[in-house]
């Protein structure tokens, strides 16, 4: 049973990553560039593309806020309707990542405030991250690399997961993951903890998630197999023609005992949920988001990131990837 769990999770990782290089385990402190290089080893080098979530779909729309007492004074929630730039994506460093395979789907969103400030929400379709820090995440990915004979070693990966319990909830999610039917039917999770300093000097500790108002829909394996190789962009465009594609941004309010530094741990489901607003998508396609960096630490006034080491690692990693892809690397 456990072996099946690991094996199928490995299969999914390979499907997403398209591994190509040699293994190397590392005990050293991991830097952002180590992770970018690891993504390239797993998914191949694709000049000009994002080094993660290389395949994506630009979209745009509007954000209508739902002001509430936990976010008093937030410019994000006090300026009425605001324009939004989005990008939906498939996990992996390859621009031809398999849309029919279960696994990571992502969403980047930048809300533009009247004073020019940006507020970014960049999340994935899983509720827990693979590891509590960059070292464990990197160590896990390194076990997926094939050796000099082109073979990977599932036993090595299984041992690493057993030694690092903070990987286990994510591996379990991956085992059960089904193929997303559409980006418009996918829920996205921010995973990290953020803070908002209210005008009344109260501090709100929260994690966000974005719920699709068309409901979550996934495909069984046979349905996914029968889809065209690429169906996500067309499905989304058709939904935009036929119905209203919108998402509700929610915040889960944390208590003192809820970790603010570990995105591999979910908070209890009974935490109060408040609505931050609704995003309605109006257009999809084009290349308006190509030169955007959806860095999750770029937020509007009053919001601050926690000390979560995964969250902190994201800004330098995204900047490296951004610089590389804009310069054709
Ligand atoms: C240490 C952990 C992580 C690293 C090193 C990392 C790295 C990256 C990199 C290099 C990119 C491409 C950026 C660009 O070229 O613009 C990217 C994109 C992305 N990442 Fe991460 N990431 C990490 C964690 C996460 C987490 C926790 C989430 C979800 C909560 C996430 C969601 C996304 C999404 C949705 C995109 C695509 C954004 C877009 O469409 O531009 N990543 N990541």
Q: How does this model look, in words?
A:
The protein has 329 residues and is of the alpha+beta class. It has a single domain, classed as Catalase HpII,  Chain A, domain 1 (Beta Barrel). It contains eight helices and twelve strands. The strands form two sheets. Strands 1, 2, 3, 4, 6, 7, 8, 10, 11 and 12 form a ten-stranded antiparallel beta sheet that branches. Strand 3 and strand 4 (118-124) form a beta hairpin. Helix 2 runs parallel beside helix 3. Protoporphyrin IX containing FE (HEM) binds next to helix 2, strand 2, strand 3, strand 4 and helix 3. Residues 35-36, 50-53, 56, 87, 89, 106-108, 122-124, 129, 134, 137, 190-191, 263, 293-294, 310, 313-314, 317-318, 321-322, 325 line the site of protoporphyrin IX containing FE (HEM).
């Amino acid at each position: 049973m456990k072996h099946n769990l690991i094996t199928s999770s490995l299969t999914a990782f390979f499907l997403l990553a398209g591994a190509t290089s040699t293994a190397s385990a590392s005990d050293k402190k991991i830097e952002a560039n180590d992770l970018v290089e690891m993504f390239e080893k797993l998914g191949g080098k694709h000049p000009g593309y994002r080094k993660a979530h290389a395949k994506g779909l630009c979209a745009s729309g509007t954000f209508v806020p739902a002001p509430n007492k936990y976010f008093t004074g937030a410019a994000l929630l006090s300026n009425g309707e605001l324009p939004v730039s989005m990008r939906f994506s498939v996990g992996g460093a390859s621009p031809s990542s398999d849309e029919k395979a279960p696994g990571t789907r992502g969403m980047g969103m930048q809300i533009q405030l009247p004073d020019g400030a940006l507020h970014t929400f960049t999340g994935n379709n899983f509720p827990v991250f693979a590891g509590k820090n960059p070292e464990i995440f990197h160590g896990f990915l390194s076990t997926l690399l094939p050796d000099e004979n082109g073979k990977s070693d599932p036993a090595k990966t299984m041992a690493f997961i057993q030694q690092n319990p903070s990987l286990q909830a994510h591996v379990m999610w991956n085992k059960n993951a089904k193929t997303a039917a559409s980006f418009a039917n996918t829920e996205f999770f921010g995973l990290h903890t953020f803070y908002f300093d209210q005008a009344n000097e109260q501090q709100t500790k929260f994690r966000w998630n974005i719920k699709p108002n068309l409901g979550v829909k996934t495909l069984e394996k046979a349905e996914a197999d029968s889809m065209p190789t690429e169906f996500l962009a067309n499905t989304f465009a058709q939904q935009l023609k036929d119905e209203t594609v919108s998402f509700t941004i929610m915040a889960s309010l944390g208590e003192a005992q809820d970790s603010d530094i570990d995105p591999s741990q979910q908070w209890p489901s009974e935490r109060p949920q408040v609505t931050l607003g609704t995003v309605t998508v109006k257009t999809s396609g084009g290349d308006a988001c190509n030169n955007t960096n959806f860095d999750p630490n770029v937020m509007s006034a009053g919001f601050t990131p926690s000390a979560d080491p995964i969250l902190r690692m994201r800004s330098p990693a995204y900047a490296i990837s951004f610089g590389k892809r804009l310069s054709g690397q």
